[in-house]
Design brief:
The complex is a heterodimer of chains A (about 110) and B (about 120). Chain A has about 110 residues and is mainly β. Chain A has strands at about 5, 10-15, 20-25, 30-40, 45-50, 55-60, 65-70, 75-80, 85-95, 100-105, 105-110. Chain B starts with a strand and ends with a strand. The mean pLDDT of chain B is about 90. The chains are: A mainly beta (about 110), B mainly beta (about 120).
């Protein structure tokens, strides 16, 4: 079985500062990893995904994440936070051919003006 | 593109009544739809997977007689919470997958259910 752990249920950063949201995974087979964002009263939107190609994955809205097998991590970063980035972020894992997603508990990102 | 809607967005009902939640893929055909449940400050938990024209596959611990899922067409799946009780109060989210793209799910905005 696979699982993900998101460190920090709440993260606050100043506008313009680096955003770093942490995700560690556990999987006995090579994982596929995802980051989703959820704005208030909206569905989850896929930010980016790692599917065993390049370890540095670029997504929408300037976000990127790096798959580090040695650290079992898939942290999400953005160089400069924008007010519109305030939302809930979910890390998720699956394995090849298995469409089921296992989600982390989410991290609420707050941007300080 | 790839929009999934849910209706209603909010529902309040009395204990013992049944509630139906609809999930629609608006601009694509979804061969597979998923139903999740999300408790406050917790993960999305997969409840069941439904494929068009066949019975849903429920995750362990989910009562299939309690949560009835119907996927009658390639654009519509419904979740019926039967004889709802206060402990069924939660946020229910659906997602839809396009055939041939197993790794991509499009999510609906969710339905918040409150059972009094």
């Amino acid at each position: 079985a696979q699982s993900v752990t998101q460190l920090g249920s709440h993260v606050s950063v100043s506008e313009g500062a680096l955003v770093l949201l942490r995700c560690n995974y556990s999987s006995s087979v090579p994982p596929y990893l995802f980051w989703y964002v959820q704005y208030p009263n909206q569905g989850l939107q896929l930010l980016l995904k790692y599917t065993s190609a390049a370890t540095l994955v670029k997504g929408i809205n300037g976000f990127e994440a790096e798959f580090k097998k040695s650290e079992t991590s898939f942290h999400l970063t953005k160089p400069s936070a924008h007010m519109s980035d305030a939302a809930e972020y979910f890390c998720a894992v699956s394995v090849f051919g298995n469409e089921k997603l296992t989600f982390g508990t989410g991290t609420r990102l707050t941007i300080i003006p | 593109g790839a929009v999934v809607s849910q209706h209603p967005s909010w529902v309040i009902c009395k204990s013992g009544t049944s509630v139906k939640i609809e999930c629609r893929s608006l601009d694509f055909q979804a061969t597979t739809m998923f139903w999740y449940r999300q408790f406050p400050k917790q993960s999305l938990m997969l409840m069941a997977t439904s494929n068009e024209g066949s019975k849903a596959t429920y995750e362990q611990g989910v009562e299939k007689d309690k949560f009835l899922i119907n996927h009658a067409s390639l654009t519509l799946s419904t979740l019926t919470v039967t004889s709802a009780h206060p402990e069924d109060s939660s946020f229910y989210i659906c997602s839809a997958r396009v055939a041939g793209r197993w790794e991509t799910q499009y999510f609906g905005p969710g339905t918040r259910l409150l059972v009094l």
